[in-house]
Amino acid sequence: MTQPVNVTVTGAAGQIGYALLFRIASGQLLGPDTPVKLRLLEIPQGVKAAEGTAMELEDCAFGLLEGIDIFDDPTAGFAGANVALLVGARPRGAGMERGDLLEANGGIFGPQGKALNAGAADDIRVLVVGNPANTNALIAQANAPDIPAERFTAMTRLDHNRALSQLAGKSGAAVSEIRNLTIWGNHSATQYPDIFHATIGGRPAAEVVDDQAWLVDTFIPTVAKRGAAIIEARGASSAASAANAAIDHVHDWVNGTPEGSWTSAAIPSDGSYGVPEGLISSFPVTSTGGAWQIVQGLDVNEFSRARIDASVAELAEERDAVKGLGLI
Ligand SMILES: NC(=O)C1=CN([C@@H]2O[C@H](COP(=O)(O)OP(=O)(O)OC[C@H]3O[C@@H](n4cnc5c(N)ncnc54)[C@H](O)[C@@H]3O)[C@@H](O)[C@H]2O)C=CC1
Ligand SMILES: O=C([O-])CC(=O)C(=O)O
């Protein structure tokens, strides 16, 4: 019999949590043959709502769901975790940038890093969704010295998926015909969605689109500011699409990316593409054997270089800010 995988989800009673848990329990995170045990971590005020969600999970009678436990203590919540989805954090409101959440949310990820370090399983994989995601991942990582650094990642898959849809809309192609888009840098308005290595139906995307003004004035800002546009329209930040991207990220990390194509994830830099080592930056990545690799050897043109550098500079500023706050 296959051993169940322990999946800890923080912020389980929040909007993203509600969209995420049912998909994990139905097998979409790890695959149709992998049983799961859910560990829901909330703050004390969130526990009652998490209990309600747990009741609904029971009512779905998912065949793969082998248990649900609810915690308000991080050390208990992460004990034995194989996968940790760090969602719980305050979302931004209208008019805020994600970086404005650094002080409010930064304090969450140090204690959670320590708790992961204390008791997570040896194969723990961490995805940080709570904003500012890249720097929160850095904080958690810095507080978990016994866990290999590369197990800490942050989510830019939602940006990647947004870019895929925008490019499909412009070119009239199906999303499934597009390969090898990249999100570089920070999950913020400085992120750089790069189509210069992407193909549409096997042809270079930049050639198919052939519209530099659209790229500069529409595509890049639409993708980079989509989170704010959703907040404006919905009155709350993206939830189902964020949960969907978290599923995609962990699914590909564990099960591998399809042959011949890459995706985007924020992972610790090894210095590739001039991104200072250690920053948790979005790169073009593949996954094999359960580990992410940065796609090597891509030509970076001047247009892309300037945009990657700007986003990476912001990541370095955020790192310095949390250093200043004593969080790393
Ligand atoms: N990386 C990305 O692409 C995206 C990130 N986000 C971020 O995800 C985070 C969560 O968003 P929502 O679910 O919409 O927020 P929400 O406010 O609906 O839910 C957050 C939940 O986290 C809980 N929480 C707060 N502190 C906690 C702690 N220390 N431990 C455990 N739980 C805690 C709260 O009680 C609440 O139930 C926000 O920071 C948001 O900005 C949202 C969309 C996309
Ligand atoms: O924009 C926000 O605050 C939520 C988020 O990260 C996104 O939707 O990309």
From TrEMBL:
Q: Does the keyword Hydrolase apply?
A: no
Swiss-Prot/TrEMBL keywords = NAD, Oxidoreductase, Tricarboxylic acid cycle
Q: Which amino acids does the record list as binding substrate?
A: 92, 98, 131, 162
Q: Where is the active site?
A: 187 (proton acceptor)
Tell me which residues make up the Lactate/malate dehydrogenase N-terminal domain: 6-148
**Catalytic activity reported:** (S)-malate + NAD(+) = oxaloacetate + NADH + H(+)
InterPro entries from the xrefs? L-lactate/malate_DH, Lactate/malate_DH_C, Lactate/malate_DH_N, Lactate_DH/Glyco_Ohase_4_C, Malate_DH_AS, Malate_DH_type2, NAD(P)-bd_dom_sf
Q: Name one GO molecular function term.
A: L-malate dehydrogenase (NAD+) activity
Q: Where is the Lactate/malate dehydrogenase C-terminal domain?
A: 156-321
Q: What class of enzyme is it?
A: oxidoreductase
Q: What is this enzyme's EC?
A: 1.1.1.37
- Superkingdom, according to UniProt? Bacteria
Q: What does this protein do?
A: Catalyzes the reversible oxidation of malate to oxaloacetate.
Q: Which family does it belong to?
A: Belongs to the LDH/MDH superfamily. MDH type 2 family.
The protein's name is Malate dehydrogenase
Organism of provenance: Occultella glacieicola
